[in-house]
Amino acid sequence: MEARCPAPLAITTGEPAGIGPELTLMLAAQGALPAGSVAIGDPQMLRQRASALSLEVDIFEVSPSQTLPAQRSTTLPVWPVELAESAVPGELNTANSRYVLETLALAVTACQAGQAAAMVTAPLHKGVIIDAGFSGFTGHTEWLRDACGVDEVVMMLATDRALHSQAPGWQGSGDMRVALATTHLPLREVADAITFERIVRISRLLEADLRQQFGLAAPRIAVCGLNPHAGEGGHLGREELDIIIPALDALCQEGMAITGPFPADTLFTPRHLAGVDAVLAMYHDQGLAVLKYAGFGQAANITLGLPLVRTSVDHGTALTLAGKGIADPGSLQVALSLARRLADQRAVSSG
User: Do the beta carbons of residue 147 and residue 105 sit within 8 Å?
Assistant: First the structure.
């Protein structure tokens, strides 16, 4: 009897003018895709991109209702979604923005129906989607929150070493897990978004998934302040005194091992991170600039709080690299490996 793969990892190939399609093809050509991986995208575009880059990949179309046969090396099954117009590497086209969202919708539907074990997303371009008329679009994370009908999700990025270690605390400068209290907001809106309720909700979700998905029995979380020097006792802003500290006190009373707020410019140092399992940063660049310095290209983005497993790359569409075959698929490989591990853990925990 022919061997069958487990439910596949569904890879949305992202912005067709960016590097997402070729990263997927590069891993397929190297035989480096995990068993049971399927791409979601336009098969003709993928064939053209593979040919242009001289990548030997056997691309064949399947439907989500079909069980994938055991994959051979250098093959790439594709759940087809048709482009509106031909895609040119490096050249954004608003006509194809709906296509990008359709690939995401197919991945979510497949995960919810048990046709996919997890979804792994290549980068999209927020600007071209907004320019196409989807004015409320702010990114993968928020779109998935709404598509899955949940009230709150948490964006967390982690370097490869931290993803594959269940040892408590950082083991070295390359080990880092950083979650965000706010995600894709203009900086002038961040302070208003930092509320007692938000800090409590995000921290609870973060701790729960550190336990359930990462195997940490008693996660220890350190929290950044919003202002320089964590507010300097109120002289540089009162958000720490009026919002963050009361929220952390309430969480500590619940039994959570959460500390802070700490000045962000000193928290991300080995001495302060010793014995910490994750950092909660107040806004996007406060936490992710440091994480990407520590492990850019070898980290993954995980959306916590969803009823499905979603991981992603740690980078953008890299339009200037698209179509040249020089982009690094390392982050996509990390995201795929993590997705399979989290999907397997979820399957075990659900019985």
Answer: yes
